[in-house]
Amino acid sequence: MDVDFNRSQETHLKFGQILKEYQARVLSDEASLDPFSIVQDFRSIAGEEALEIAESGEENDNEQFQNWELEAKFWDLVGLLVEYRTSETVDKDINVHSYNSNVVFQKQLLQSNKGIYEIWLIKSWLEANIGIPERPSSLCTTKWSSSMIAGTVKSMDSDSILRDPTTNLQPDDRQNDHAFFVYAFRLLLAGQFEKLTEECEFTDNLTLNLILRGMESYVDPNVDTDMTDEYASQQGIKKHALWRRSVYALSQDPLLDPYEAAIYTYLSGDSPTNLRIDGLDWETELLIYVNQIWNVTMENYLIEHGRVDNDELITDMDTACPSLSQVLNILAAKYPDESEHPIRVLTASVLLNTIEPVMKSSTDMLLDVIKGRDEDNALFNESYLLRILTNLTIFLDIVSPDTIDISNKSKLLTSYISLLSYYGLYDVIPVFVSFLSQEEIVETYSFFLTNLIDPNLRQKQMEISKYLGLPIANILRRTAQRIFEETDQYYIVDSDIELTNEVSEVDQRLMNGVEWLIENGLYTDSIDTIIALSRRFLINGKVKALELFVDNHDVPNLLKEYQLERLSSQEEDHDLKTTELLQYTSLLSTFKKQEEWVKSSQLFNTESNLRSLIKQFKGFSNTIIKLVTTFLVDLIDNEEVNDSDVLYEIRALYTPFLIMELHNNLISASENLKVSTFVQEAIDLSILVANETDKIYLLFQSNGKLTTYLQMVAKASALFGR
Asked: What are the boundaries of the signal sequence (predicted)?
C-alpha cells in the first residue's frame, strides 16, 4: 500500500462525506437533487488538495500534486461528457435556409452529430484546464523599438521583415518578440481570446490582433433568427475558409518565430506535426489535435453543403484528420510515460466512452491480487486509483445504470471497503456499502461488522447506518449468523468433553456477535441467538463462558422485551424458547451454588456455624436433585423443539456431572462436618440414578460415566460399612 495513505486519509473521508450527503438527500426525496453535483464536489476536493500542496512548496510532493491536478481535470471531464451523453433534453430543431450564415449550418451539425459536439466539449475542457500562463515582465509597449533606434528597421509594418529579408532585428527585439509569442500561444491554448486581444493591443502586435478578428464566422441575428439568443449584433467574417488558408500559409514561413508560426498553425486548425516548437506535453498536443478535428470537420461539412466558394480554397489543406482514438494512440507513442499515468488512462476511457472495459480490467487486476498472482499491483499500491475507480463507478451507476456491469461494480466497491477497513476509516464504510444491492449490503456489511468489537465504534456504525437507511435488522442477523458459521470449527464435539473454566477469544467473539442483536433491540433474534450460544457453549463444556455472558446481560429483562414482541406479533402463548433459556439459567445458578458451598466449607473451622453450614449444604443438595430430574426433560420430549438431540446431549453431559459432583461433596462434607449420614445420602443417589421413572442411568451410559459412577458408589458403600 502507498506510504502516503495516512496523509490522504482525510481526503478519503471527504469523498465519502460527499456521497453520504447525496444518499441522505435521496432518502429525503429532495426534488432538486442533481447527481452531477457529486463530480463537481469531487473536482473541488481534488483542486483544493492540489492547491494546498502547491502552496506548501515541498519538492517531495510533486507526484502528489500531479495526481491531484490530473484528478481535478478528470472529474471536470466526467461531468461535461457524461452529462451530455446522458441528457434527455431535446434541442429545438433549427430551420436552415440557403440565405442563412454558415454559423447556422455549423449549429445544425452540432445538434445532429453527437461526435462533433463531444469534440467541442473536449476542446472546451482542455482549454479550461490548460492553465493561464504567467505574463512576462519584459513585454514592451512598442514593437521593435531598439531596431528602430538602431536604424536596422525602417518600417513599423510588422510584415516588413518578411518582405525584406535584409531587415535585421536587434537581439533584444527578437527576444521580446519571442517572449510575447510564447505567451500569446499559451493564452490561445487556454482559450483566453479577449486577454490575447488586449495583449496584442498593449504590445503593439497589430498584425496578430487583426488576424484574430477572423476567428469568428459571420453571423447576422437579423437574418439568422435562430441565433438571436447567442448574438446581439452582426459580427465575424464571411469568407472564413479563405481566412483559414491565409493563416495556414503564413504559418509555413520559415522566417517566423517558431511560436508565432505555432499560433497560426493552431488558428488554422492544422496538425501539430507541422509545429516547430518543443516542450509540448500530452494535454497540449491533445488540444491541438482536437482543434484540428474540429476545424476540418466543420469546414468539410460546409463544403459538402455548398457553403464554401472555390475561390476561397486558395491552397490545399488536409481534408482528413485522425480520429480521437488514433490521436490517443499517437500520443501514447510520443508520450509513453504521461500516457501510462493511471488517471490519463481513465481520462482516455472517458474521452472514448470505453469506461466499462477499463472497469473490467481493473477488477481482473483485483482478482490477481486476491489470488496472489500480482503482489505489485498499481491498483492496490496506489490507493487513490481504487478510490477514483470506485467513486466513478458509483457516479455512473447513478446517472446511467445500464453502462456499469453489476459484477464489476460489486468487486470494486467491496475491494475499496476492504481497503477502508484495513486503514481504520470506518465512518465511511456504511456510505460505500449503501451503493451495493440489498443482498450485497447484507453480505458485505455483515462481514465487516463481525470483527468490530469496540462499543463506541459499534454504536457509531449503527448511527450512520440508520442515517443512510440501511436494512439494519437483516444486517445484524447475518452478522450474528456469520460469526456462528466462522467459529463453528472451534466447537466440534468429541466423545470426551471436559468442563472448562477457560473463556477463549473465540468464545468472546461469539458473544460479541450476539450482542449486536441485543444492543439494537432485536429481542426475538437475541433470544434465538442466546439459545444457540448456550447450546454451543454447554455442549462443549464451556459453563464459565456462558456464565460470563449471562452475568453481563439482563436476561430477565431480555425475556420481558421478547414477550412483548411476541404479543405485538400475536404469536401463540406456548413459549418453548423462554422455557429453554430459563433451564440454562437454572443450571448456571446451580453451578454458582456449588461454588459458594465449596468456599463456605473451606472456611469452616469451628462448630459455631455448623448448623447454618449444614442447612446451606442441604439447600444446595436439594437444588441439584431437583434440577437433575427436570433439566431439559420436557423440552426433549416435545416434538415442537428443534434439534432435541442436542438438548439430550447437553442433559447427558451435565446430569451425570452434577450427580457425581454432589456425591463427592456429600462424602467430603461427611468428613469435614462430621456428619456420617451424608455418606448414606451419597449412596442413596444411586437409587435416583437407577429408577425407571427418570432413567438417569441412560444418561450415564450415553456419556460413558456409568462405570466410573458405580465405582464411586461401591467405594462409598465400603466407607459406610466401616
From this structure: none
